[in-house]
Amino acid sequence: MPRLPDGDPAPASGELPSQSIAALGSRPFGIYLHVPFCRVRCGYCDFNTYTLTELGPGASTSTFADTALAELDLARSVLGDAVPRVDTVFVGGGTPTMLPAADLVRVVDGIRERFGLADDVEVTTEANPDSVTPESLRELADGGFTRISLGMQSAAPHVLATLDRTHEPAGVGRAVAAARDAGLVTSVDLIYGTPGESLDDWRRSLDAAVSLAPEHISAYALVVEEGTKLAAQVRRGEVERPDDDDEATKYELAEEVLSAAGFGWYEVSNWTRTPAGRCRHNDGYWTGADWWGVGPGAHSHVGGVRWWNVKHPRAYADSLASGASPAAGRETLTVEQRRDEQVLLGVRVRDGLAVDDLDDVGRRAVAGLVADGLVDGVAAVRDRRVILTLRGRLLADAVVRRLLGVDT
Amino acid sequence: MSPRARTVLQPHATPPEAIRNFCIIAHIDHGKSTLADRMLQITGVVDDRAMRAQYLDRMDIERERGITIKSQAVRMPWETVDAEGRTGDFILNMIDTPGHVDFTYEVSRSLAASEGAVLLVDAAQGIEAQTLANLYLAMENDLTIVPVLNKIDLPAAQPEKYAEELAGLIGCEPEDCLMVSGKTGVGVEPLLDEIVRQIPHPVGDPNAPARAMIFDSVYDTYRGVVTYVRVVDGNLNPREKIIMMSTRATHELLEIGVISPEPVPGKGLGVGEVGYLITGVKDVRQSRVGDTVTNERTPAAEGLGGYRDPKPMVFSGLFPIDGSDYPLLRDALDKLKLNDAALVYEPETSVALGFGFRCGFLGLLHLEIVRERLEREFDLDLISTQPNVVYDVTMDDGSVIVVTNPSEFPYGKVAEVREPVVKSTILAPSEFIGAIMELCQGKRGQLLGMDYLSEDRVELRYSLPLAEVVFDFFDQLKSRTRGYASLDYQEAGDQVADLVKVDILLQGENVDAFSSVVHKDKAYAYGNMMAGKLKELIPRQQFEVPIQAAIGARVIARENIRAIRKDVLAKCYGGDISRKRKLLEKQKAGKKRMKNIGTVEVPPEAFIAALSSDDGGDTKKK
Ligand SMILES: Nc1nc2c(ncn2[C@@H]2O[C@H](COP(=O)(O)OP(=O)(O)OP(=O)(O)O)[C@@H](O)[C@H]2O)c(=O)[nH]1
Ligand SMILES: C[S@@+](CC[C@H](N)C(=O)[O-])C[C@H]1O[C@@H](n2cnc3c(N)ncnc32)[C@H](O)[C@@H]1O
Ligand code: SF4
Ligand SMILES: [Mg+2]
């Protein structure tokens, strides 16, 4: 599991500096809810999630919704009356659908009561294909959910096996169809570069995803996260380490197959059929929106302050039960840090970055990036925006280092 | 301490007849310094409490490596019966010398201050290459040789066998070889007696103008330059003015004394005595080894025959990894030079490595020691380039270029290239003759001769290009002879050779630090090896980087570093942002000190690795 960042201590009251909440409402405002339960832990996954469903008072699948509602109370009182209506809600995990659908709906209701929901609110949940039924999906849709992101990962059985996935390939089709029938916008997650995955395996997974006709597809290169079972397998030589060149080829193939099927990229790892099909909540992470992260280990950002909650569901529930903020630490970003973040995040999205938001170093780097084929020259000249080319998307981190003057 | 160690004879008042000046010479590790320890103890100049192993190896680097780098002279009293049967007090001036081939010049200086030499042979090893080399030097200097077998306490010692070998070599009877153990002290008292009996006392004219030979000159932070001398004629006294005969420079004698084994100031030095002077000069170059010291009042007409400054044999570029350390490196070299006349250097600029110095050394061990001292005593991080020798290049128009840096080796229009050669002596059990010959042939060696020292030990003499010897010759020799061979070599002029410069190009840009002068037949192997190595070490860039090895315009080997295709974090959501930004902040702060070759960015570590992984190697103990 990734460690929490180092930061300053967060006050027990959860109070925020007044200047950080001053401009609330001028940017989109979202709520993220982290549900830390899974039936099985996948070998590659380092998310904050637990396979025990009983982790103590307020920290079991049956009581978790109430604990989350308690944090929403805190959020409401910290943000005060100036709080805007909520534009997006994203329930992630873990496997949110480990909770009864009624509990998820209860949390959405709780958000509505405390903050109000925008008319066009986007409410997404993540789900494993084998953790939903037509009934549960209908219940979610009826309760206000508008979107679902299903962890498909691959269509190849041997790849699913390597990834420790519990669902069978056909289950994804059934789940997508049922979600659509329930009226939800659908998205599937894919992973490429799994040890043993051939280029053809990957092509078949892409074709299978396209044939499900979701609105949205995410495709992630497999990351060997420290401390995972996968990392140990790689270290012991039991499975081969994912290869950057292979992943690059697969990324290019994804772009080819998806664009041929009418999908366009809007973030390095995300494609959608129409611009309206974007995940607006995730978009907020890349464009500097405000959001409150509810749940153990959840991260928040409001007006240049980032904070994060304690990781363990038990510690999380305990601090809320005692009336204290579950925040473990926080940081107030300096002007320079905000600009660095703007660059590192903004460059990942299709709309790119305004050249005028860059400092001198960044502006001087653009010409070289265009010359190297990493940044779209026409957009740089005509729109004064830094937008990655296909090659640039694959080398986005190097582009960021050049824009920030880390590399020359 | 023996009851025969008494300090009755004072410096300045010791008749030459009571003095014996000798050095201990041997192959490396045969036990010179340990034997010296016992002598210091038995003669009482170091008491048992103060004693420690290899007492005279005072430098940290000597103690850590367990080898002697600088000669040390010590005055010791001894009572015995001399060759004429007279019992009396004597003064022994003993010089412990280094055994490693790089420091042969230290041995030569010591020999010039002595009338005799204790030739020490490890009784478990027998005669080895430096035994021969040092014996030869001693005989050239007309010294009386006292043959001694050491380490007779070792279970593996074969003193009788090696006594025979030694006797055969110097033309004495096996019984004439003394048997000692420097470790236990057995046989050391009789050895001291024999030194008095066999080694002639110094001869000089006490009434002639003073003449003293400088045989060492050392910089000391507190006292300035300390000069070690051996008086030949006349005498030197405190407070008088002296003249350095080569420069005619005058200095006042602030202090004069003997080493026993710490400096003891005294009333002066007379004929045949060995001691030190302090004049207040700050630079050893003002008090040069080999020069003659005389009196200002009654100066000598002629100096003593000096000896040549040691000539640097091996050159290498030294560069600070952090370019801003360049001034520190310069100061550090200036300071080391005060104590190390053999070290030469001049500024060098490298495209790949920045500002540094091209330095000349006596050999690879000398290089390694200087480098280690720079790093440790001056806290520098250094890169050193592949060591090379000096080439004389004659151009078609007859002009001659002396090349100490391969990157300056001229292109085209070369009429002739000359490279230094050495005469080498290899001693080994005879079963390895074939392996050694094969190795020497591969290194362009020419057999000069071969002799059996005994039934199963053989001496091979080869003429070899120095460049081959300093590359990895010694390592290969050791590995092919399971460690049994020993090697010694001396410069022996130069020879014409078919040499070419191989350049290494990164994306068409010459990386000067990797240019190398090699024999034509080895150019391809070198080019391939270097290109392959760099391919592994240089991180992939955003574009493809060709690596080529070329002789002039002709490419002889090539490799490609494929372009990096993917450098992006797949997922970047809420919780990843702080982490990712912090990583960038760290990268910004510790901004990599990349070296740029054209548009290719190379971390210095890659150059270090490429330059160090097989930088040759007779640097280990021999
Ligand atoms: N058993 C035994 N070991 C000895 C004896 N003399 C020296 N040694 C060991 O041999 C090794 C080398 O001894 P040194 O006295 O440093 O040899 P050295 O000839 O001065 O070496 P260099 O100065 O490097 O040429 C050390 O490990 C000593 O302890 C001896 O008489 N008996
Ligand atoms: C937080 S997970 C939760 C989704 C859900 N529990 C599931 O697994 O279907 C969201 C997505 O992140 C991706 N993911 C998780 N760990 C990953 C890793 N180590 N490398 C690449 N993608 C990963 C997977 O595609 C996964 O669907
Ligand atoms: S089901 Fe999803 S959250 Fe749970 S372990 Fe697997 S990938 Fe991680
Ligand atoms: Mg020694």
UniProtKB/TrEMBL annotation, chain A:
Main location: cytoplasm
Pfam families according to UniProt: Radical_SAM
CC per GO annotation: cytoplasm
Coiled coil location: none
Record's keyword annotation contains Kinase: no
Segments forming domain Radical SAM core: 23-264
Classification via CDD domains: Radical_SAM
An example molecular function term from Gene Ontology annotations: coproporphyrinogen oxidase activity
GO terms (BP aspect): porphyrin-containing compound biosynthetic process
UniProt subcellular location: Cytoplasm
Keywords on record: 4Fe-4S, Chaperone, Cytoplasm, Heme, Iron, Iron-sulfur, Metal-binding, S-adenosyl-L-methionine
SUPFAM superfamilies assigned to the protein according to its UniProt record, in alphabetical order: Radical SAM enzymes (SSF102114)
Gene3D superfamilies the UniProt entry points to: Aldolase class I
Family: Belongs to the anaerobic coproporphyrinogen-III oxidase family. HemW subfamily.
Function: Probably acts as a heme chaperone, transferring heme to an unknown acceptor. Binds one molecule of heme per monomer, possibly covalently. Binds 1 [4Fe-4S] cluster. The cluster is coordinated with 3 cysteines and an exchangeable S-adenosyl-L-methionine.
Protein name: Heme chaperone HemW
Organism per entry: Knoellia locipacati
TrEMBL record, chain B:
Top-level taxon in the UniProt lineage: Bacteria
Localization in the cell: Cell membrane
One GO CC annotation: plasma membrane
Reactions this protein catalyses: GTP + H2O = GDP + phosphate + H(+)
Top EC class for this record: hydrolase
Single annotated GO MF: ribosome binding
Binding sites annotated in the UniProt record for GTP: D29, H30, G31, K32, S33, T34, N150, K151, I152, D153
Family, similarity comment: Belongs to the GTP-binding elongation factor family. LepA subfamily. Belongs to the TRAFAC class translation factor GTPase superfamily. Classic translation factor GTPase family. LepA subfamily.
Function: Required for accurate and efficient protein synthesis under certain stress conditions. May act as a fidelity factor of the translation reaction, by catalyzing a one-codon backward translocation of tRNAs on improperly translocated ribosomes. Back-translocation proceeds from a post-translocation (POST) complex to a pre-translocation (PRE) complex, thus giving elongation factor G a second chance to translocate the tRNAs correctly. Binds to ribosomes in a GTP-dependent manner.
Protein name from the UniProt record: Elongation factor 4
Native source species: Knoellia locipacati
Gene for this chain: lepA
